[in-house]
């Protein structure tokens, strides 16, 4: 704590670096969502004409939305692994 009683925090990374990392995380989550959407569609296709999420075109839209929701709320680990790899690649290119 500083003399005013405010908790000490570590300095924030420069804004350009923070926004770049945020963008990389968004890309990684979107990548996982696309992967999960394809997996959900594959699962649904084997269940007959109406599938798991209903008939086309709305069934595929629902599968996409479920995939985005799963990816945004922790997913299955693909986004985190992708994010770490993107950070590693960017660090190597500097």
Query: Approximately how much beta-strand content do the residues carry?
Result: under 5%
Number of helices: 3
Secondary structure tally: strands: 0
The run of helices and strands is HHH
Report the average pLDDT across residues.
Answer: 81
Distance, first to last CA:
35 Å
Structural class: mainly alpha
Instruction: Enumerate the spans where pLDDT stays under 50 for 5 or more consecutive residues.
Output: none
**Morphology:** elongated
Overall domain count: 1
CA-based gyration radius: 19 Å
Major sheet description: none
Q: What share of the residues lie within helices?
A: 55-70%
Question: Features of this protein?
Answer:
single chain; 94 residues; mainly alpha; 3 helices; 65% helix; elongated
Give a topology summary.
Elements: H1 15-45, H2 58-72, H3 78-92
Explain how this protein is built.
With 94 residues, this protein is an all-alpha fold. The chain has one domain (17-92). The protein contains three helices and no strands. The protein has helices spanning 15-45, 58-72, 78-92. The chain is elongated, with a radius of gyration of 19 Å. The two termini are 35 Å apart.
